[in-house]
Amino acid sequence: MSGLTVGVDVGGTKIAAGVVDEAGKLIASTRRETPATDTHLVLEAIADAVRELNSHHQVDAVGIGAAGFVDAGRAKVLFAPNLAWRDEDLKAELTSQLGVPVVVENDANAVAWAESRFGAGRDHDDLVAITIGTGIGGGLISSGRLLRGGYGVAAEIGHITMVPYGRRCGCGLQGCWEQYGSGRALVTEAREIARHSPAFASGLLAMAGGGPGGHHRRDGDGLRPAG
Ligand SMILES: [Zn+2]
Q1: What domains can be seen in the chain, in order of their start residue?
Q2: Ligand 1 geometric centre to CA of 165 (Å)
Q3: How much is the pTM?
């Protein structure tokens, strides 16, 4: 046993993987683009990133943080609003490909657990973690334990209804918080302003190439056109 593990963050735009020691210290890292529309290619990209790290550091186990609804058994991604996964058994697929134990967790739950063990929540028994990226994720620690709920999706606070009958969400509901407060929501908001008040948004329009459908992407900010 080396005491080293790999943590993989699977988001809508990128896959980031890192080797960490038992104190939570990052030793090495790598990344891949997320081939978001092809579930098989996403698995390949995850396995490839882990193999790259494992070739330099012998690791004991792999933890996957996925931007989706993960089941209570920490094996399957039931649904991912920003990825093509539907009932995907990541644990089984990756365990057979990598030959080490694999645990799958919701990415924001993983953030909450990390903050609780090594970060801002170290001296506290209860905390809420909110992750704002392409979407909005949440993780809850209560009395020192990760609160997963009966179906594993207790802390999906990005999909709480904030605006009744509001914007459609990738989860199937309307008016979710994620549609108003995420990176993707900023793009939607900017487009609406550009469409309805072009004079007011002249600076934005110039950066987007003249039309509200365009986008100006700064590398690494995780923003993509909303389609
Ligand atoms: Zn939603």
Answers
A1: 1-160 (3.30.420.40)
A2: 12
A3: 0.78
